[in-house]
Write a structure and sequence with these properties.
With 402 residues, this protein is α+β, with helices and mostly antiparallel strands. It is 26% helix and 28% strand. The longest helix has 18 residues, at 275-292.
Length: 402
């Protein structure tokens, strides 16, 4: 079937939707506090190189998936305690499936009690609720709490790591390999910044009720109050998660998210030299993302973007729709640089089911993050009966009709 292409360029795009180019999100934000860390190898962005002291960096828009900035986003790296996001994804999934409960008590083994590094300070031969252990992992980065979860769920850390790997594949992580529940240094324990961003997005989407734990500022256990290590909480407007990490090999890292109005960004940085550099660089890059880009509604969910010809159907065309608001992340001032290509194969063979993916809207242009947005059939189209198909087939053979 031939491929149809419709090129739309510039602000005068002939997009007939009444809601074209409606801005989403709040006003421009002021520049970040403090001075930027010393520049090193720049990150790539649609607007050009951006200096960052981070060894790895990735900034994406939560809603559209647009990449606003990247540096080594697909490279394997030691995630340190940021891999605890995967530990908690497994825990939250167990709760969702009814195999764990927040008030369920889990036993503390000697292995968990003796675990080094950052700790919740669980007591040997006691039990701790799933809810408190979750806070111990998320707020206090407790390695001991991670081991309690691993042993209770899978019997051992190694078996739990296998479960983490299985779950990672199921949610689309392609560059991750887990060897433990804590992020403890291991040459085979690796993730990519892209996988960390994907994992953060899935936690926010799949477990909104549990995600609130990531914004809690402190947690007290065993008469010890520990502050959440996430530097964007209270520092970046809208900052509400997720997880820090640090080892000698990995440097200082952070997987973070911030939401302003109806726009959310996810940031991953790693390889920073100090806690202060991690805090300042995370703030600077998030502020840059909110300041330099905006989300724009190209079509409303109910808008017909195109009528696509149907072959041997009960109707000659089927409406092509977004299924929901079609939103693109664009640089401020996008009106002079955006291009959009509508791609679909036509005619579409009947039958066609409403909601069936029929094409893509590809967005690009000067300074515009490249995006490919799915488009769907807006109605069911039944296949013609045998008798009705005969003249349609003959007409197509003779006149090239649909």
């Amino acid at each position: 079937m031939p491929s149809r292409r419709l090129l739309l360029a510039g602000f005068s795009l002939p997009l007939a939707a009444p809601a074209l180019a409606q801005q989403r999100g709040g006003p421009q934000r002021p520049a970040a506090r403090g001075s930027a860390p010393p520049p090193t190898t720049p990150a790539n962005s649609p607007l050009g190189p951006v200096d960052t002291a981070a060894r790895f960096a990735l900034l994406i828009d939560f809603e559209t998936g647009a990449t606003l900035l990247e540096k080594g986003a697909e490279q394997s790296m030691p995630p340190a305690s940021m891999s605890k996001l995967m530990t908690m994804y497994v825990v939250f999934d167990m709760i969702r499936k009814g195999r764990l409960a927040m008030d369920q008590l889990l036993p503390v083994s000697e292995a968990a009690w003796r675990m080094g590094g950052s700790k919740m300070f669980v007591d040997l031969n006691t039990t701790v609720s799933v809810e408190n252990l979750a806070r111990g992992v998320i707020i206090q980065s407790g390695n001991d709490a991670c081991v309690v979860f691993a042993e209770a769920i899978a019997g051992s850390e190694r078996a739990f790591a296998d479960l983490m790997n299985q779950q990672a594949r199921e949610i689309g992580l392609t560059g991750s390999n887990f060897r433990n529940s804590t992020g403890w240094p291991d040459p085979e324990h690796r993730m990519t910044p892209r996988d960390l961003a994907t994992l953060a997005r899935r936690i926010i989407l799949d477990f909104p009720d549990h995600y609130r734990l990531y914004s809690e500022r402190s947690f007290r256990w065993h008469n010890i109050t520990q502050e959440n290590r996430n530097p964007i909480l209270g520092r970046v407007a809208g900052g509400d998660g997720l997880k820090t990490g640090h080892t000698e090999e990995a440097g200082y890292g952070l997987t973070a998210s911030a939401k302003r109005a109806d726009r959310r960004l996810i940031l991953v940085v790693s390889g920073l030299p100090t806690m202060r550099a991690r805090a300042e660089e995370s703030e600077r890059l998030l502020e840059w993302g909110f300041r330099e880009f905006e989300n724009v509604v190209l079509f409303r969910a109910e808008d017909t973007i195109e009528e696509v010809p149907v072959h041997l159907g009960g109707r000659r065309t089927v409406p092509l729709v977004g299924g929901r608001d079609v939103v693109a992340t664009l640089p401020r001032g996008w009106r002079n640089g955006m291009q959009a290509r509508l791609r679909y194969d036509a005619p579409v063979p009947a039958p066609v089911a409403k909601g069936q993916e029929l094409g893509r809207l590809e967005v690009s242009g000067r300074g515009v993050p490249e995006m490919s947005l799915p488009l769907y059939a807006g109605a069911d189209v039944e296949r013609l009966g045998l008798v009705s198909r005969i003249p349609a087939v003959l007409g197509r053979m003779i006149g090239g009709g649909a």
